Amino acid sequence: MNGVVLALGRALRSIMHPKLLLLSVFPTLVASVLWGSLTLYFWSPLNAWVADWLNNTTAVDAMLYLARVLFQWEMAGVIPGLARFLILLTVLPLIQATALMIAAVFLMPVLVKHVAGRSYAELERRHGGSFFGSAWGALVGASVFMFLWMATLPLWLVPGLALLLPLALSAYLNQRLFCYDAIADHADQDELDAILRGRRIGRFGLGAALGVLHYVPLLGWFAPVYMGLAFAHWGLALLAAQRKALAA
User: pLDDT tens digit string along 55-68?
Assistant: First the structure.
């Protein structure tokens, strides 16, 4: 885990560059405007559809009946409020996943070039990855993330899981999006496959540590670029160490 800590520290130093600080707000801003606009435009029919679905779901009816009997709660406004809450729970991960995809597919070449030029200038580029591989990995990773997010929503009612599940899903998405792009330009195909199939503790550990940023107000705006920098430092340092060990 020492490599994870080093990558986080080096990424913090890298993001202080004025150009990268300015670039940092771009992915989250674009994703927020996109999904915010779509949500506002479709708010009325979407809210009505979710409320109708809740009204016709047996499990929800049973929970509301139990709350009304045990606690004497007034249930009149529960369904509309729950519908709005579920819509927000869907839009937020969409914003997160879209911002990360933008950073991974379009900004990682800039971030890797910045990191490599200043810290790994002697590392040979072997071009084992491709733009198609990056885009496909981002699409698959984001799709799996959204499916698991929606599928595990009922489990969020279990105490503690409302924090652990989003963090675990963020760890998966972060490493899936950024690990490939971090080393695609410098690693050959064998090196790329070896790192992507192994090093799970390091990849998911770094992904989880970076996932915490989504819970911190304001820092979430800078998270996608910082994540890219952290994975670039982690991946290039690992690649350099492996080549040094083979050459020894």
Answer: 666 545 545 554 45
- What are the extents of the domains in the chain? 2-38+100-247
End-to-end CA distance of the chain: 24
pTM above 0.70, yes or no: yes
